[in-house]
Amino acid sequence: MIPWQHLGSAAIPGTVGELRLMRRGTEFSIMLGDNELMNSRLSGSEEALARLSCERIADRAEPKVLVGGLGMGFTLRAVLSHLGGDAGVTVAELVPAVVAWAKGPMAHLFDGSLDDPRVSIAVTDVAELIRGARAAYDAILLDVDNGPEGLTSRANDGLYDLGGLEAARHALRPGGVLAVWSQGPDSGFTGRLRRAGFDVDEQRVRASRKGRGARHVIWIAAT
Questions:
Q1: Cα-flanking dihedrals φ and ψ of residue 179, to 5°?
Q2: What amino acid positions are annotated as catalytic residues?
Q3: Which end of the chain is more exposed for a tag (fewer CB within 10 A), N or C?
Q4: By the 8 A CB rule, do 24 and 31 touch?
Q5: Confidence class for position 136, pLDDT limits 50, 70, 90
Q6: Given pLDDT bands bounded at 50, 70 and 90, which one contains residue 42?
């Protein structure tokens, strides 16, 4: 078997955690300790996050979308494929090295999406953009962690607690959508979404685009 090659490490701002970019042949992995956060072979649920969100705003002119987490670009590419030329997509990425990896060793995975004129990259905490916005976005897509438990950074809990969810609702335009990716179910989070004023649709999707692999969860929360 081809061994894994360590391509780079990056500190997560505000934490003691460190991301590692690994490659084995044509396969890439981003790790946090022993936890694999993402793998280039598994993009189905990230693409579903984009598709399910964009379907809800398909009839909007000049839609504005905020994506939390750049990752390996699967969500971004899928969002762009579902939106027209009048859309605007902001991607917030907390770790500067992830942006550098996207433009370097993983550039082929992004397939030019970072150069799309509809896209802007903000190297910042997505929570800051959300808290500073009022009726600014038609959709907010969050894939910044393994789910509402805040694995990579305890600060991410602020995105998923009641205050963070209420901030997201205020950042959305009327009828807008908050979509959240998770490795698994979380009944407490579903309840918090409803208490924050959202109508909630919980979807189970496969990790692989071929319909195989683990089942992940996507919450589609509408205002």
A1: -120, 130
A2: 143
A3: N
A4: no
A5: very high
A6: confident
